[in-house]
Amino acid sequence: QMPGTARHDREMAIQAKRNLSKTTDPVERLRLQCLARGSAGIKGLGRVFRIMDDDNSRTLDFKEFVKGLNDYAMMIDKEEAQEIFRIFDKDGSGTIDFDEFLITLRPPMSNARKEIIMQAFRKLDKTGDGVITIEDLRGVYNAKHHPKYQNGDWTEDQVFRAFLDNFDSPYDKDGKVTTEEFMNYYAGVSASIDTDVYFIIMMKNAWKL
To answer: Which PANTHER family does this UniProt record tie to the protein (predicted)?
Structure first.
């Protein structure tokens, strides 16, 4: 059985919704709104920004920023959006770098957590090229135990693909998982787990590390 990340994902989303009512920090509120959509929520927002970045500058001005938030159905008023924008527009240039924005939006994690996430990634990345693919999973997992494989609904490749899709942005499933995507996903899961010790045990059990 592949590591059941869906349960953590649900717990995290519920907790994010709960915490939303308690926090007044605008960046934290935006982070929680993203996480309320699950671990790929922050990545989904990044995807919206990328689509809007017509000139490929990897930056957004305020108008684009607000439009992106609205397109992604974030509940945010103009003052709050301005405040967030100002925090990220450090040099006052009137634009923000959205890679930097997404990294800051990601829930902070201790080095101990990052290290165990990377261990899991390296275990899965059989070929060692920094991307997890179906090929990699073939070397690590036995799909034959999966219930959908057993009842004939899915082929082996479909089992693997469904697994990879967990980590991928909901709108951009390409069957490849990069270090960044894996980290983003687990930053979301990590947000719902209070102690490093518990997070590390959970990861070790899930990935047999």
So the answer is: CALCYPHOSIN, CALCYPHOSINE LIKE
> 133-150 pLDDT, tens per residue?
988 988 787 888 888 889
* pLDDT of 122 above 90: yes
Task: Write out the residue range of the structural domain in which residue 18 sits.
Answer: 3-105
Which residue in 31, 28, 29, 57 sits closest to 44, CA to CA? Answer: 31
How far is the C-alpha of 67 from the C-alpha of 156, rounded, in Å?
41
Per DSSP, 91 falls in state T
Determine the angle formed by the axes of helices 26-35 and 6-20, rounding to 10 degrees.
Answer: 150
- CATH code at position 169: 1.10.238.10
Is the pLDDT score of 2 beyond 50? no
Contact 119, 209 (CB under 8 A): yes
Burial label for 80, CB within 10 Å (0-12, 13-18, 19+), is: middle
Could you give the number of structural domains in the chain?
Answer: 2
